[in-house]
């Protein structure tokens, strides 16, 4: 069902394009898929490429191997970046995760193993999060004397609420998949090693939907978190005006009356 063509990335990032307009981005830095500065830069350029690729309608991010989705940033690089940590490291990490969050196409995090630190922050930048029941998630930065500097500080409270977010960041403790689901951090918990398989099914369903409407939903929801209700209503109306004029809208209405499945562009 999922025929694929795989493109190798020298920066330990692999892009796999499936036949159904679904793409999978693999973090592949064994054994824990630690995120290096080189990988961060590659994510920035890769998601720019994905944005412009009309053959991709939905994206999954996952970790290669069985030990981790991503266990965070490479601590070995800390010594070289501490003098200018924002310029050398955190600025680039925030840019990469913003590329993921702002991508006009839906992005799913499929976590079959642990997601810690920067790995957890990457999952927070995705639209949908799926985790295997034996995996754990956490933001342990406090244990290194720092705090989540790549979006966790502001993304996590929006997703799980202030109190849950503060407890996770104050203690630095990891939480189980079931606890992550209970507080609303993840959408689905699967059986062990089934998160990617489950994510493919959701991505395939999403990829069948009209491109312009998907982009409008994502942009509208994301922007509504940053503006007033009145501004959100106005933005909603502007998006609706564009989408209702699209050929996919015309096809969707026509298919409804003809009692058939729509064939979106």
Can you describe this structure?
This protein has 11 helices and 11 strands. The strands form 2 sheets. A 7-stranded mixed beta sheet has the order 1-2-3-4-6-8-11, sandwiched between helices. It folds into 2 domains: 4-207, 2-enoyl-CoA Hydratase, Chain A, domain 1 (Alpha-Beta Complex), CATH 3.90.226.10; 211-257. The chain has helices at residues 37-51, 78-81, 85-102, 118-125, 152-160, 162-171, 177-182, 195-207, 211-224, 229-243, 247-257, and strands spanning 4-7, 13-18, 22-27, 58-63, 68-70, 107-111, 114-116, 128-132, 136-138, 175-176, 188-190. It has 265 residues and is an alpha/beta fold. The model is unreliable at 1-9 (pLDDT under 50).
In summary, what is this structure?
The chain folds into 2 domains: 4-207, 2-enoyl-CoA Hydratase, Chain A, domain 1; 211-257.
Task: Indicate the radius of gyration in whole angstroms.
Answer: 19 Å
Structural class: alpha/beta
Strand-residue fraction?
A: 15-25%
Could you tell me the mean pLDDT?
91
- Give, in order, the helices and strands: EEEHEEHHEEHEEHHEHEHHHH
The figure for the number of domains is 2
Helix content: 40-55%
Amino- and carboxy-terminal Cα gap: 21 Å
Looking at this structure, what is the CATH superfamily of the largest domain? 2-enoyl-CoA Hydratase, Chain A, domain 1
Number of helices: 11
Largest sheet: 7 strands, mixed
CATH topology of the largest domain: 2-enoyl-CoA Hydratase, Chain A, domain 1
User: Could you name the CATH class of the largest domain?
Assistant: Alpha Beta
The 3D shape can be described as globular
Strand order across the biggest sheet? 1-2-3-4-6-8-11
Strands, total number: 11
Low-confidence runs (pLDDT<50, min 5 residues)?
Answer: 1-9
CATH architecture assignment of the largest domain? Alpha-Beta Complex
């Amino acid at each position: 069902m999922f025929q694929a063509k795989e493109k190798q990335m020298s920066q330990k990032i692999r892009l796999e394009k499936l036949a159904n307009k679904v793409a999978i981005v693999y973090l592949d830095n064994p054994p824990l898929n630690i995120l290096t500065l080189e990988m961060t830069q590659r994510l920035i350029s890769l998601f720019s490429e994905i944005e412009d690729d009309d053959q991709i309608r939905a994206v999954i991010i996952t970790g290669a191997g069985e030990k981790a989705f991503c266990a965070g940033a490479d601590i070995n690089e800390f010594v070289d970046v501490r003098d200018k940590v924002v310029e050398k490291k955190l600025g680039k990490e925030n840019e990469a995760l913003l590329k993921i969050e702002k991508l006009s196409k839906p992005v799913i995090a499929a976590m079959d193993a642990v997601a810690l630190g920067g790995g957890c922050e990457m999952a927070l930048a995705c639209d949908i999060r799926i985790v295997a029941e034996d995996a754990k998630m956490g933001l342990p930065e406090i244990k290194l004397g720092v705090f989540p500097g790549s979006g966790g500080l502001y993304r996590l409270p929006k997703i799980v609420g202030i109190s849950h977010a503060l407890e996770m960041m104050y203690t630095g403790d990891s939480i189980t998949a079931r606890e992550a689901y209970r507080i609303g951090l993840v959408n689905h918990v699967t059986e062990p090693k089934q998160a990617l398989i489950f994510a493919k099914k959701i991505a395939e369903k999403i990829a069948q939907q009209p491109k312009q409407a998907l982009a409008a939903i994502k942009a509208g929801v994301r922007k509504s978190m940053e503006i007033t209700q009145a501004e959100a209503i106005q933005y909603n109306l502007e998006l609706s005006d564009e989408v209702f004029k699209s050929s996919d809208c015309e096809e969707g209405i026509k298919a409804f009356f003809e009692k058939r499945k729509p064939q979106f562009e």
